[in-house]
Write a structure and sequence with these properties.
There is one protein chain. The chain is an alpha/beta fold. The chain folds into two domains: 126 residues, Periplasmic binding protein-like II (D-Maltodextrin-Binding Protein, domain 2, 3-Layer(aba) Sandwich); 102 residues, D-Maltodextrin-Binding Protein, domain 2, CATH 3.40.190.10. The chain has ten helices and twelve strands. The strands form two sheets. Strands 1, 2, 3, 4, 10, 11 and 12 form a seven-stranded mixed β-sheet that branches. The protein has a five-stranded mixed β-sheet with strand order 7-6-8-5-9. Helix 2 packs antiparallel against helix 10. The longest helix has 28 residues.
Length: 267
């Protein structure tokens, strides 16, 4: 091997090594690590979509699940996090009033049903049957989760409010826990999310709630002003609001909202 050939070989090896170093360096330095606070009732579609986003983007998304009210308190107390996806817009609006939101997107409708244990369907045929003596009801904690707040509002609009509330035997911190109580027969019925009842459709019958008592909540995803990666957080927000992602939500029992409403909004 001539000296000129050895020089060219060494030079080629040097540039290949340099290129490999910078590719690895750029991936480690520019791969964001996002923290998403998400309502417990959104776990199944969210886990699926987070995995897809990570594979497609190279960015990491860590998810902290819990009751929407609990998550809101964690965000305020810690001053940390990149995104917030509660089960109802109400919780995002509370943060918005505090100046904690950069932008948000509406995603899907979070619709309530009366989830009835299949062995109790003969006893509970309508919403008013929740007031029957001896019926055991579960309810979400109104201070801790979106569907607890929604259930309390629904019941307050019924003329049988007092009788229904007398039948509540347990309060749950998350809608998943509440749905499990119904599925296992720990309670006879509870007001839960349609998507949660859908996941236990072999054990839970879905009974419609009269429209005069409620309007569906809206699931939103918000970019927090505490984010250290606003562009990546916005990218994830857009990804979650895409038609392809909405189809995933629908597969898990969520209902779509009007396309006119599914727009980026800024405080």
């Amino acid at each position: 091997m001539t000296s000129e050939l050895r020089y060219k070989t060494k030079r080629a090896v040097f540039f290949i090594t340099l290129f490999t170093f910078f590719v690895g360096f750029s991936q480690s330095c520019f791969s964001a690590d996002l923290l998403l606070f998400a309502g417990a009732g959104l776990r199944q579609p969210t886990d699926h979509l987070v995995e897809r986003f990570q594979k497609e983007s190279g960015h990491r998304v860590r998810v902290s699940y819990g009751g929407s009210g609990q998550l809101l308190s964690s965000i305020v107390a810690s001053g940390q996090g990149d995104l917030f996806m509660p089960g109802a817009r109400f919780y995002m609006e509370k943060l918005e009033k505090m100046g904690c939101i950069l932008s948000y997107r509406r995603l899907v409708a979070h619709t309530a049903v009366v989830g009835v244990n299949l062995h109790k369907v003969d006893l509970i045929r309508s919403f008013d049957d929740l007031a029957k003596p001896g019926i055991r009801l579960g309810m979400g904690d109104p201070k801790a989760m979106a569907f607890g707040r929604m259930a309390r509002k629904i019941i307050s609009r019924s003329p049988l409010e007092e009788s229904i509330l007398k039948n509540v035997v347990v309060y749950a911190a998350t809608v998943k826990q509440l749905a499990l109580y119904v599925a296992q027969g720990d309670v006879d019925a509870a007001i839960i999310g349609r998507a949660d009842a859908f996941q236990f459709r072999d054990e839970i019958f879905m009974l419609d709630i009269p429209k005069k008592y409620f309007q569906p909540e809206t699931v939103v995803i918000a970019v927090l002003n505490s984010t250290k990666h606003p562009h990546v957080a916005e990218r994830f927000s857009d990804f979650m609001a895409s038609e392809r992602s909405i189809e995933v939500f629908k597969r898990f029992g969520f209902l779509p909202i009007s396309s006119q409403e599914n727009q980026t909004e800024r405080p």
